[in-house]
Amino acid sequence: MKVTIRRTGNGLSAYVPRKDLEEPIVQIENEGLWGGFVVLRNGWRLSLPDLPKDTRLPATVEAKKMAAGAAAIEAQRESS
Predict the structure, then answer these.
(1) For residue 9, what is the DSSP state?
(2) What residues contact residue 25 under an 8 Å CB cut-off, 6+ apart?
(3) pTM score, two decimals?
(4) 74: DSSP letter
(5) What average pLDDT score do residues 24-33 get?
(6) For residue 76, which phi and psi values (nearest 5 degrees)?
(7) For the chain, how many structural domains are there in total?
């Protein structure tokens, strides 16, 4: 899915145009951002492509939505 990563006054955010969704990024796997996963405030984990560290923001990239971890799945089941 196409995702635009941009820097805001509060940190980084991700915008998913097909869902008309913009959420803050609350966790980053790699300090350099690229080539790892990020977690959005809504719980989505997105795998980002491996780009150079000096890639300028905003940047639109092809990201992959990752399955939620076992703990997140269990928490969803308990709340249902």
Answers:
(1) T
(2) 5, 11, 12, 13, 14, 38, 39, 40, 41
(3) 0.80
(4) H
(5) 92
(6) -65, -40
(7) 1
Instruction: List beta partners, residue 57.
Output: none
Q: Do the Cβ atoms of 4 and 18 come closer than 8 Å?
A: no
The identity of residue 78, as a single letter, is: E
Residue 39 sits in which domain range? 2-79
Q: How far does Cα 53 stand from its chain's mean position?
A: 17
Cα–Cα distance measured from residue 3 to residue 74, given in angstroms and rounded to the nearest whole number:
27
pLDDT higher for 72 or 41? 41
Q: What is the pLDDT of residues 52-72, one digit of tens each?
A: 999 999 999 999 998 765 555
- Helix, strand, or coil (residue 6): strand
Task: Supply the CATH number for residue 11's domain.
Answer: 2.40.50.240
